[in-house]
Design a protein that fits this description.
The protein has 171 residues and is an all-alpha fold. It is built from 7 helices and no strands.
């Protein structure tokens, strides 16, 4: 019970950052805030026994930091995808639910070089939907609630960007 409460508290803190990302309109800032978010959520996932989620978040930090220094090339994307799969599968074949964070990370990693902010936010909505299911399964109710709010924030951001006539491509 202690791990459940502590895990949900830490997930709550990470989730506050996750929701704030929905309102950020700059991709670089999104990636920076995600690193801190991923660290908190990885810790929460470990406490809740959601190991594939913890691995996904940890690899996400390394990936984001790497892509600040170098371009998100296909070989680097493949490297981070294989790294996550390798670490996750090192403990044996996981339960089917464990593939949700893996799929979310694969889709997100493949989309990092999208220039179109609308498409990037659609990817964020899809990948967050996978986390909704995963977090609910592991009783990570703080993250689950914020997953839903994050999806709503990204939808709001898309509507706001379109309403203000912001271009999809950077100028």
């Amino acid at each position: 019970m202690t791990f459940l409460l502590l895990g949900n508290f830490i997930a709550f803190l990470g989730s506050l950052l996750m929701v704030s990302i929905g309102f950020i309109k700059d991709k670089t800032k999104i990636l920076l805030v995600q690193c801190l978010q991923f660290g908190l959520l990885a810790t929460a996932n470990l406490l809740l026994g959601a190991y594939a989620g913890a691995v996904s978040n940890a690899v996400g930090i390394a990936r984001n930091l790497a892509f600040f220094k170098v371009a998100a090339t296909t070989p680097l994307k493949v490297f981070f995808i294989v790294l996550q799969l390798g670490i996750t599968l090192a403990n044996g074949v996981p339960a089917p639910i464990e593939f949700f964070p893996i799929l979310a990370t694969v889709v997100y990693t493949c989309s990092l070089d999208l220039k179109n902010i609308f498409r990037f936010k659609y990817v964020l909505i899809f990948t967050q939907a996978l986390w909704v299911i995963y977090d609910f399964y592991y009783w990570n109710y703080a993250a689950f609630a914020f997953d839903l709010m994050t999806i709503a924030a990204h939808i709001y951001s898309i509507v706001s960007l379109k309403r203000n006539g912001n271009p999809a491509e950077p100028q």
